[in-house]
Amino acid sequence: MSQFELVQYKRKKGTKKNLDHLGLNAAKKAQKFHSSFDMYKETPLVSLSSLSKELNVKNIYVKDESYRFGLNAFKVLGGSFAIGNYIAEKLGRDIEELPYHTMISKEVKEKLGDITFISATDGNHGRGVAWTANQLKQKSVILMPAGSAEERLYNIQSEGAKASITDLNYDEAVRLANRYAEENGWVLVQDTAWEGYEAIPTWIMQGYTTLAYEAYLQLQGVKPTHIFLQAGVGSFAGAVQGFFASVYGDDRPVTTIVEPNAAACIFQTAKAEDGKIHPVTGNMNTIMAGLACGEPATVAWEVLKDYSDNFVSCPDYTAAQGMRILGNPLAGDEKIVAGESGAAGFGLVSEVLRNPELDWLKKALGIDENSVLLFFNSEGDTDRDNYRRIVWDGFYKRTDMD
Ligand SMILES: Cc1ncc(COP(=O)(O)O)c(C=O)c1O
After folding, report:
1. What is the pLDDT of residue 400?
2. Three-class HEC string of 131-176
3. Average pLDDT for residues 71-84, to the nearest whole number?
């Protein structure tokens, strides 16, 4: 069996999920909120022209989220916007009346009283929630799945959170966080959704649109032909997909959702095509820790099923290869420090374009010399030990998998 699997959806005519909540106006609102933060700076959109010549495509763009707020990943965009909206709702205000300095003010804290935010996370989302809670002088509790990196735990604890690594997988940790929230009156800020828990995850997705909107502006009218989005529960992919599908309508770029073989729950759900969510269970052993999630977020799947074109499940070595290529640029290109989940989309395509055995996939994805490819490096080296093992010591090569 191939280590690469593809499911393709034909573009639908007729009624599709409404995208107003992820469209231009929604994204402008989220970006306005984030830009009120002192540490806000748009992250770079890097054009890799030497590499695009080498790989025989027209251009390769990488939006580098390792620069986001000094937190090394995009995730804070979601947690902060969700918490901002939660507070706005509590105070009976609109988020537009709650820019950063108002939100963290003494006056707001006094009105709110003490709140504990809780979340389950492999690290990046938890760091964003803990960071936001810290800014608000509120408490946070973060539960991490078994096998989470010590460095990620430490970074969350450094934001004042009560954080621990559990012996559960991601989805089980989410259920435990939900139970603690109910038992203790804490606020669950979870980056995935299920029936009955969709308001906060929708705000989280809206928060992610900031990075899509920035990329759209940075592209200065250049429309990518292809967008590649890595997925855990799919909230990130759904948000970015939703934004670009809303902006470009029927002329939207071809979008491919990328997941590791060990945790390809969106892929399995797409493949079954029976209107139901198809979870993946077990320990989901993959180097792409941020993508090691077994249950698609309902609010994300609603978008992905109507607007995404391709769903690909791929082996771990592709992400490792992506990290090495981005970290060792050709002359004239900028270096990008990409973590395992961050490099997933790019890693898949680098392999598809370099490995003749994957010509079938290149053709199916419709990539050729006129293609303009857009990727999102969703995290930097959030686990530096593993980054070095992969980039310096060359762990996880294609040949290891033979
Ligand atoms: C770095 C990184 N990239 C991508 C994702 C995927 O996001 P989602 O779970 O919304 O699909 C995550 C999730 O934690 C992540 O940490």
Report:
1. 76
2. HHHHHCCCEEEEEECCCCCHHHHHHHHCCCCEEEECCCCHHHHHHH
3. 97
Q: Is the pTM of this model over 0.90?
A: yes
pLDDT at 263 over 70: yes
The pLDDT score that the predictor gives to residue 361 is 98
**Residues near 311 by beta carbon (within 8 Å), at least 6 away in sequence:** 6, 7, 8, 9, 256, 257, 259, 266, 267, 270, 271
pLDDT in the model for residue 64: 98
Q: What is the pLDDT of residue 276?
A: 95
What is the spatial distance between Cα 302 and Cα 17, in angstroms, rounded to a whole number? 7
Dist. CA 193–CA 190, nearest whole Å? 7
Measured between alpha carbons, how far is 197 from 100 in angstroms, rounded to an integer?
A: 26
Answer yes or no: are the C-beta atoms of 143 and 120 closer than 8 Å. Answer: yes
Choice from 63, 72, 121, 124 to test ligand 1 binding pocket (greatest atom count within 8 A of CB): 124
User: Does 122 contact ligand 1 (Cβ within 6 A)?
Assistant: yes
Say yes or no: CB of residue 291 within 6 Å of ligand 1.
yes
